[in-house]
TrEMBL record:
SMART domains: DnaJ. Residues 175-212 are annotated as: Disordered. InterPro entries: DnaJ_domain, J_dom_sf, Quino_amine_DH_bsu. Residues 420-481 form the J domain. Signal peptide: none annotated. This is DnaJ domain-containing protein. Residues 191-203 have a biased composition (Basic and acidic residues).
């Protein structure tokens, strides 16, 4: 039955065409798809069945779609877009943006003319030349022109020289622009495609965890401070603040940080540092005390980065599908062209994917600590090889169920509500799903109205608690009914979209097993032979998986899970912009102006706040060190490690100043 609260399937087909075209920088096709979706949106909105039942969905055709129409000069399409948003109150939020698209259309033309008239004009001067107030807007449009291939940008100090694609460029300027090296070819021994084993969830141990929502209704935010560095919870005995010498200040271009066995790797993935001149980016290693080494230019772009916390070196996948493995000294170990793998061609044919979608279909790479094995994923398949090119195993995820938007019900809870749910059940962390199931069945026997009248409210609370702890309805736990009412809206796409895409991958702390995180919210553990052994169900897309020799960390856009085997030992809510670092026996959740610090097993130690944006955070000999552009704050002397129930109190010795 058609659901009037959502647009029809034709709209979602155009949405898929639009998003894949934007990813491929094919703005002509993207603009056409955005415009084709406008009458479909109009038909949906004027349908009286949907009055008052519209979901507050994001409509890319009215935002980025308008920008793509502006870049290709489709004024008629922008007029149609403006008329649509003016016709329906539901689209009121897009009206200002619809007018701004016309401003962009004019600015695109003026930018082209300014660059044509003055080849090599500095991007920093564009705002003045065009007489516009919003320099950021002009820079964003220049970025679109560069991605579309119309404009080339040559690094010049802290800005860029701008040239049209067909204009002559001085050799010195051309030398600052990265040109991808020739493809290395595949190092595969077997040129025929292997047949993947298909995961059967019914044959694998499933660990249901408190489900993670795609987004929180109220954002998870740290408090603000007006002090350079602040300890709002009193977690440390002192904060030692030092001014960073200009020559030692962290370069903000190195914005992605990963912990390793001996220190940390920092990546400039946008080629904004001096070391990346003429290269697609740069990498820098800092030792355990935070002392940075010399930045090294990257050989290819860092479209996907894989760093093992227990290893040395790293692997990068370029947008073109080439995997480059680097040693601990930042020199290249070996390369292979993943796009040339026969398994990729076979899976592309199975799913009916166009070659233009290749960079999107190749997703993750992962490397063992000793760099002797690696894996890559293509849509819903994962393939593992050794460094000699021998295929070790392949695994395909089953088709996921159609996307379900849960409305109502009680399956999602904040970390505080999860703690309350455990209390209702008479449990505490660490806890396993089996313990929750057994406890639930015990409480049903004790509290069911047929056995113990008068406990209806208590039984209802137990049902809600069990659903929050497992994501399963009470019927699934016991078959006895109960739980809050809710309904689901189902969205179905084409074969590739219905595949359960693998969005995160990592090897375990020892490198013996692999972990694969899928769009359906599963994290699948795979043994060395390629057999799946465990499925951790977290309810939404895992964006980061890290496993040390002691613990497994699974991070979604809203939550961090800490696991020891099948036992959930800690759970914390987080924001989508959070970064995870596991180093020096501590876990850091790093945000723009604050760091939440935990023990390795997930117990909270404290919060380190800053007034200025954080450039880098790390652990140095027990100190949590946070660096802004000009200052370094060392949070010293953790007062105590919070104990778990039944554990003795642990005091941490203060480090002498």
């Amino acid at each position: 039955m058609a659901d009037p609260s959502l647009p029809g399937q034709l709209y979602f087909a155009q949405l898929e065409r639009f998003t894949s075209s934007v990813s491929a920088k094919d703005y002509v096709t993207a603009a056409a798809a955005a415009r084709a979706s406008l009458p479909l949106l109009r038909d949906w909105l004027k349908d009286p069945q949907g009055d008052g039942k519209r979901l507050d969905i994001r409509i890319p055709a009215l935002s980025q779609g308008g920008t793509t129409m502006a870049i290709v000069g489709d004024r008629d399409g922008l007029c149609e877009l403006r008329d649509l948003v003016q016709s329906f109150d539901h689209l009121q939020a897009y009206r200002t943006e619809a007018e701004e698209h016309f401003v962009d259309l004019d600015l695109f033309d003026r930018l082209r003319e300014a660059i044509r008239a003055s080849p090599g004009i500095l991007q920093s001067r564009i705002k003045t030349v065009l007489g516009v107030d919003d320099g950021r807007r002009a820079s964003r449009l220049i970025s679109y022109l560069e991605k579309s291939g119309e404009v080339r940008r040559a690094k010049s100090g802290k800005t860029y020289e701008l040239y049209l694609a067909d204009a002559e460029m001085p050799k010195a300027s051309a030398a600052t622009i990265y040109n991808e090296p020739a493809r290395p070819g595949s190092h595969r021994r077997d040129r025929s495609a292997g047949r993947p084993h298909e995961l059967d969830p019914k044959r694998v141990n499933i660990v249901p965890l408190p489900p993670s929502p795609n987004a929180w209704e109220r954002p998870v935010e740290l408090p603000a401070t007006e002090e350079a560095f602040a300890d709002p919870q009193g977690g440390w005995s002192e904060i030692v603040v030092k001014t960073i010498e200009k020559s030692d200040r962290p370069d903000p271009a190195f914005r992605k940080h990963y912990s390793t066995r001996g220190g940390a790797l920092s990546f400039d993935d946008l080629a904004k540092s001096e070391a990346s001149l003429g290269a697609p980016g740069a990498v820098m290693f800092s030792d355990a005390s935070g002392r940075p080494g010399t930045p090294v230019p990257l050989h290819r772009d860092a479209y996907h980065i894989s760093v093992h916390p227990e290893g040395e070196g790293f692997a990068l996948r370029s947008k073109s599908g080439v995997m480059t493995v680097y040693r601990g000294d930042l020199a290249i170990d070996f390369e292979t062209d993943l796009e040339a793998a026969p398994e990729v061609a076979a899976n592309r044919e199975r799913l009916g994917l166009a070659e233009s979608e290749a960079h999107r279909a190749l997703r993750c790479i992962a490397l063992t600590p000793d760099r002797n094995r690696y894996l890559f994923t293509h849509v819903d398949e994962a393939w593992c090889f050794n460094r000699e090119g021998e295929r070790l195993w392949g695994l395909r995820m089953p088709a996921k169920e159609p996307t379900r938007i849960r409305v109502g019900g009680s399956s999602f809870g904040t970390a505080a509500e999860i703690d309350q749910a455990l209390q209702v059940m008479g449990l505490q962390m660490p806890v396993t799903p089996d313990e929750i199931r057994k406890r639930y069945r015990q409480l049903v026997r004790e509290l069911h109205p047929d056995v113990s009248p008068g406990n209806e409210e208590r039984m209802k609370a137990v049902n809600v608690a069990s659903e929050r702890l497992t994501g399963l309805d009470p019927e699934q736990l016991d078959g006895s009914g109960g739980g809050e009412a809710g309904f689901e809206i189902v969205i179905s796409f084409g074969p590739a979209a219905e595949a359960d895409w693998i969005y995160a991958a990592a090897f375990s702390g020892t490198g013996e097993t692999a972990l694969l995180g899928t769009y359906a919210g599963r994290v699948v553990r795979v043994d060395r032979s390629g057999s799946p052994t465990t499925i951790y169900d977290v309810g939404s897309v895992p964006v980061r998986i890290v496993e040390t020799e002691s613990f497994l960390y699974v991070m979604t856009t809203t939550r961090l899970y800490v696991l020891d085997g099948d036992r959930l030992i800690a759970l914390h809510d987080c924001s989508p912009k959070c970064d995870l670092l596991v180093s020096g026996g501590m876990v850091l959740l790093v945000e723009g102006k604050g760091v939440r610090v935990f023990t390795e097993d997930g117990r909270p130690l404290g919060i380190a706040l800053t007034k200025a944006p954080i450039r880098r955070a790390y652990v140095d000999n027990g100190d949590v060190v946070v660096e802004t552009r000009t200052q370094r704050g060392s949070f010293r002397g953790i007062r105590a490690v919070p104990k778990r129930p039944g554990d003795p109190f642990q005091a941490i010795p203060m480090r002498p100043s």
